[in-house]
């Protein structure tokens, strides 16, 4: 498997998870697939980061987890955004936009 | 804050729950990934392997997830303690020495705090005991307190509005017969409202009530629990029964609860004060009051003083009396409080020294663990984490020390209390209670932090590369650490010096006390109380006849040198009485001097080997009907006959129904029968035959080296009257004297033990530091020897280094001792707190011991073989 590693800042990972959950309840594996898809296969979330992050976000009350049954009839935890999570996503998205704008300025991309 | 702690705790507890759900979730993830891989064309095994590889280390992920949820701190702490325990187990010698050192300090602290707490701090076992006060009238000129009269009490009771109630008691006693062998009991005669004032009522039977003191009825008595249990087998049917006290019937109406303790020599039963018009003005009552909840001690004192003054102006003009109101607790324990706090201070010093010693041990150990610590830091442990880790170790050590210390306290408390003087108030209440244990836990925690923090901070301040690169021994015992170790030694020496000075002063004070002239030889005089029964000895002639016959019998017994009776053997509870003196026109009772008096048989002075100063002894000729005579003590002569010899002058004991002038025929030396610390109370003696009593002391002087004369005395008395209770053992006055200084001996003993330990710890500390320093400098010493230094030079080098530290310690210690020893002033007798001899001697002793402790390592340094030392480098 190709391994161009892109390090993700922790805050960025949180944002990506929230973003992935925007479309509805999915389980952990689904989130990793979704992030890869959203980034057009550019970003790969390591499971070692994903699950701790999920538990942390749950603890922070940004996402909610429920046991459910997956497509292949397996027990799985499904995550959904909470209201706080939705709000956090908005804030982080705008932050991100500002930061990336700034970085792009610095790097002279635009 | 609280919620975050709770969440951490929950996370910690829910660890397993969390683990399970995460495992399940990750298993699913792996499975889905494997399926996806198979879909991409891999074989099942390949797919599974790839998924696993991609996933990474499962346990690590779980750990990180827990970390992110904030479980870490508690778990880290648990980890720190587990690791610390492992480290301590790895160095059992170090752990044992450190823990034992601390155990001595903590144990001693716990024991002394238990005593201080039980005696001086814990409220008395009466409800709202803070409102109870002792009220004493005081002779302004001498500061001596004197008993109060029923007349005064009644006036106060009527007029003082600050008190909920005022009550009184006085000492009494009696022979209990008809229940096994006759025994002598101590009792208190109390006012009817005594127990309601204290707010403690009998647990069996009832309290005194109106009508109990009516004539024609057997007087009521209430027993203490102890007496009920020991003499009456705790049978409830005793209540309501009639018992014989002094051969007179008494009705037992109640039993006090067990917590109503009176201690050694305290009352064993209570009866009601007798109403007697004749002694309405006599002073024999001890007053206790219960303040109203809103009243203050100061205000109440003012109120009572005003009433007293008014009363005195109207009836008995007297501006000589003051009034003292003290909280009851204070009045009971105020006398020993300074001593107790001095002991607590001493034990605090000991604990400090123990801490310093362990800190020094830790410093030495930290030096040898430098590599380990450097490695941990290099591997990414933060400094705070390493400090926490080291602190966990010292806290564990302290905890072990604390547990050992408390065990030590429990093991030695009984022995310690056995040594404690019976005169220590509330001794029977001393126990290691919750407060003492809480105090110990706090002390343990503080010591753990105290001795651990500095070495831990010191140990983690290191230059990584240097520490890792350099070899074991040289590994930077940096300048800072050396200075720290040295100042710890200085601190230890000076702390030990302060304690030793205290012990030295107390020892000098005690030897002063021991050397006091008592006026007699206490080791050959035995005493015992005798009570005659009114029915059998109804009048003076009968009593005099008894005395004559008994003394004749006693004197003829083998081993007895002299025998005498004295109505008051003035050791405690001196009966104080007013004395009228000729040529003093004073007729006002309240303005007359107060003396202690005793009727004695002619041989009394011989039995006490008393020294005659002037005049003659009493003789058999001083009988009823012959001219009334008296003998006075030197103190009496000094105070009341300053103008010359009192021989031939006349005095009168002012008894409620008598005022008979007596000629003074002799002056005798003062008898310090209450022990060497007693202040001389003026004493007046009358011939027993002219003023006999029903209760008196038998005073027996034995022949040299004769044993306790109790058997002969018993035989002699029983021959005359078998109903008189006789003791199985007579008390040697030396015991009274020893008891009277027991509190001083106790303090001295504890102080000596503490300072002995302090000296030992200080010596160990110095030895440890010097030995360590010699080991560190082996190479340097080897080079010096190789370059031609003589053994004496090396000796001087090492001892000089130790000597400087010791000198500093002694100088600082002397300064500290001089500035703190005045705290001992209250408990010192005949020696100044800054006694230069003591200071010098103590400094010399400490100096020599400390010098020896640094000389031993120095000697080893001189035996360094340069070849070996240099090769090792």
Q: List unreliable stretches of 5+ residues of chain A.
A: 1-8
Structural class, from secondary structure content of chain A? alpha+beta
Counting helices, strands and paired strands, the structural category of chain B is alpha+beta
Low-confidence stretches of chain B: 471-476
CATH topology of chain A: Arc Repressor Mutant, subunit A
Tell me about the biggest sheet of chain B?
A: 6 strands, mixed, barrel
Oligomer: heterodimer
Q: Any idea what the CATH superfamily of chain A is called?
A: Winged helix-like DNA-binding domain superfamily/Winged helix DNA-binding domain
Outline of chain A: globular
**Strand order in the sheet with the most strands of chain A:** 1-3-2
Into which percent range does the helicity of residues of chain B fall? Answer: 40-55%
Radius of gyration of chain B from CA coordinates: 38 Å
Distance between the termini of chain A: 33 Å
Helix content of chain A: 55-70%
Task: Please tell me the total number of domains of chain A.
Answer: 1
Structural commentary:
The complex is a heterodimer of chains A (110) and B (873). In chain A, 56% of the residues lie in helices and 15% in strands. Chain A is of the alpha+beta class and 110 residues long. In chain A, helix 1 packs across helix 2, helix 1 (10-21) crosses helix 3 and helix 1 (10-21) crosses helix 4. The longest helix of chain A is centred in the last third of the chain and has 25 residues, at 83-107. With 873 residues, chain B is of the alpha+beta class. Chain B has 27 helices and 22 strands. In chain B, the strands form three sheets. A six-stranded mixed β-barrel of chain B has the order 3-4-9-6-8-7. In chain B, strands 14-15-20-17-19-18 form a six-stranded mixed β-barrel. Chain B has a four-stranded antiparallel beta sheet with strand order 13-21-12-22. In chain B, a hairpin with a 2-residue loop joins strand 7 and strand 8. Classes of the chains: A alpha+beta (110), B alpha+beta (873). Chains A and B meet through helix 2, helix 3 and strand 3 of A and helix 2, helix 3 and helix 4 of B.
């Amino acid at each position: 498997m190709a391994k161009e590693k892109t390090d993700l800042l922790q805050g960025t990972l949180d944002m990506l998870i929230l973003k992935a959950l925007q479309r509805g309840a999915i389980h952990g594996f689904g989130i990793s697939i979704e992030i890869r898809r959203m980034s057009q296969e550019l970003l790969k979330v390591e499971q070692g980061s994903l699950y701790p992050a999920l538990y942390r976000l749950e603890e922070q009350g940004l996402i909610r987890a429920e046991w459910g049954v997956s497509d292949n009839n397996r027990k799985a935890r499904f995550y959904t955004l909470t209201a706080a999570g939705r709000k956090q996503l908005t804030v982080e998205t705008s932050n991100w936009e500002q930061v990336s704008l700034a970085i792009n300025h610095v790097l002279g991309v635009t | 804050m609280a919620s975050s702690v709770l969440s951490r705790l929950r996370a910690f507890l829910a660890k397993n729950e969390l683990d399970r759900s995460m495992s399940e979730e990750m298993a699913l993830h792996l499975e889905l990934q494997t399926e996806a891989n198979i879909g991409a064309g891999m074989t099942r095994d390949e797919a599974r392997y790839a998924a696993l590889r991609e996933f990474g280390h499962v346990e690590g992920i779980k750990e990180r997830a827990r970390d992110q949820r904030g479980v870490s701190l508690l778990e880290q702490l648990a980890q720190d303690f587990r690791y610390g325990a492992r480290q301590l187990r790895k160095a059992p010698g170090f752990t044992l020495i450190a823990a034992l050192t601390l155990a001595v300090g903590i144990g001693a602290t716990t024991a002394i705090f238990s005593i201080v707490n039980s005696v001086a701090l814990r409220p008395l076992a009466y409800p709202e005991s803070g409102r109870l006060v002792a009220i004493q009238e005081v002779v302004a000129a001498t500061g001596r307190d004197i008993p109060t009269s029923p007349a005064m009490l009644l006036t106060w009771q009527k007029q003082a509005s600050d008190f909920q109630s005022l009550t009184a008691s006085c000492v009494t006693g009696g022979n209990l017969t008809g229940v096994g062998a006759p025994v002598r009991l101590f009792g208190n005669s109390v006012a009817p409202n005594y127990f309601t004032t204290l707010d403690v009522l009998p647990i069996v039977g009832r309290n005194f009530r109106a009508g109990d003191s009516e004539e024609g009825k057997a007087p009521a008595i209430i027993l203490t629990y102890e007496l009920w249990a020991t003499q009456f087998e705790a049978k409830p049917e005793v209540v309501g029964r009639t018992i014989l006290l002094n051969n007179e019937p008494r009705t037992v109406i109640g039993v006090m609860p067990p917590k109503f303790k009176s201690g050694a020599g305290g009352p064993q039963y209570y009866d009601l004060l007798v109403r007697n018009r004749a002694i309405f003005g006599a002073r024999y009552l001890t007053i206790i009051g219960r303040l109203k909840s809103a009243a203050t001690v100061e205000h109440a004192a003012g109120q009572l003083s005003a009433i007293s003054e008014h009363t005195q102006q109207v009836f008995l003009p007297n501006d000589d009396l003051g009034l003292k109101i003290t909280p009851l607790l204070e009045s009971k324990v105020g006398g020993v409080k300074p001593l107790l706090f001095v002991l607590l201070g001493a034990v605090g010093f000991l604990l400090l020294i123990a801490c310093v010693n362990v800190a020094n041990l830790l410093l030495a150990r930290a030096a040898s663990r430098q590599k380990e610590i450097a490695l941990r830091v290099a591997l990414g442990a933060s400094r705070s984490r390493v400090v926490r880790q080291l602190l966990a170790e010292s806290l564990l050590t302290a905890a072990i020390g604390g547990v050992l210390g408390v065990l030590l306290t429990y093991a030695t408390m009984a022995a310690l209390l056995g040594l404690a003087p019976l005169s220590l108030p509330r001794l029977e209440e001393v126990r290691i209670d919750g407060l003492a244990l809480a105090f110990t836990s706090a002390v343990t925690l503080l010591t753990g932090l105290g001795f651990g923090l500095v070495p831990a901070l010191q140990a983690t301040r290191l230059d990584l590369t240097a520490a890792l690169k350099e070899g074991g021994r040289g590994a930077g015992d940096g300048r800072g650490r050396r200075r720290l170790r040295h100042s710890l030694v200085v601190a230890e020496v000076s702390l030990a010096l302060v304690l030793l000075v205290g012990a030295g002063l107390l020892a000098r004070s005690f030897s002063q006390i021991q050397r006091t002239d008592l006026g007699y030889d206490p080791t050959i005089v035995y005493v015992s109380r005798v009570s005659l029964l009114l029915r059998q000895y109804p009048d003076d002639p009968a009593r005099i006849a008894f005395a004559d016959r008994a003394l004749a019998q006693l004197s003829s017994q083998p081993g007895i040198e002299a025998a005498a009776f004295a109505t008051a053997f003035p050791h405690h509870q001196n009966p104080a009485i007013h004395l009228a003196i000729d040529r003093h026109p004073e007729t006002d009772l309240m303005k007359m001097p107060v003396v202690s008096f005793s009727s004695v048989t002619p041989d009394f002075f011989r039995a006490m080997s008393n020294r005659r100063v002037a005049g003659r002894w009493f003789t058999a000729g001083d009988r009823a009907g012959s001219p009334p005579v008296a003998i006075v003590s030197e103190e009496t002569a000094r105070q009341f006959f300053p103008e010359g010899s009192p021989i031939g002058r006349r005095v009168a004991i002012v008894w409620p129904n008598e005022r008979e002038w007596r000629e003074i025929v002799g002056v005798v030396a003062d008898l310090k029968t209450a022990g060497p610390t007693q202040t001389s109370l003026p004493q007046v003696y009358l011939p027993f035959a002219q003023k006999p009593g029903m209760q008196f002391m038998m005073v027996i002087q034995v022949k040299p080296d004769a044993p306790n004369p109790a058997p002969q005395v018993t035989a002699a008395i029983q021959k005359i009257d078998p109903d008189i209770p006789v003791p199985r053992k007579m008390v040697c006055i030396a015991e009274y004297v020893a008891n009277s200084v027991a509190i001083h001996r106790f303090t001295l003993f504890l102080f000596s033990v503490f300072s002995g330990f302090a000296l030992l710890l200080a010596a160990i500390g110095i030895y440890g530091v010097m030995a360590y320093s010699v080991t560190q400098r082996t190479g340097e010493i080897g080079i010096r020897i190789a370059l031609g230094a003589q053994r004496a030079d090396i000796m001087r080098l090492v001892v000089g280094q130790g000597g400087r530290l010791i000198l500093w310690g002694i100088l600082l210690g002397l300064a500290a001792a001089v500035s703190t020893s005045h705290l001992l002033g209250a408990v010192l007798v005949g020696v100044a707190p800054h006694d230069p001899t003591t200071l010098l001697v103590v400094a010399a002793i400490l100096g020599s011991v400390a010098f020896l402790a640094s000389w031993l390592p120095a000697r080893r340094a001189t035996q360094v073989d340069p070849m070996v030392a240099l090769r090792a480098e």
